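Batch job 17 of 40 flagged for manual review because the log was empty.
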Amino acid sequence: MAMASGPVEAGVEVPMKSLIMAIVQALVDRPDEIQIKEVIGEHAHVLELRVAKEDLGKVIGKHGAHASAIRTLMAAASGKEKKRYILEIIEY
């Protein structure tokens, strides 16, 4: 029996993109400048998160606390999809 995959939007499965977008929008002052791009590799999917320069510190957090928490949530959510996701935070 074949399992249907979730809807796909521009290569990124909507649930993972929506998860990251919701978290990051709650952290930044300029949510309209958030971009998430997926780069599909041989062993993992790299999600490139771009935010405004002044929001970069808010997304990373003190000593990387926010970035680490986002990556932990991604790992938990991706277990269901049986895919490995890597988050890269890129400055505009």
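Reviewer: the log was empty due to a logging misconfiguration, but the result itself is present. The radius of gyration is 13 Å. Unflagging and moving on to job 18.
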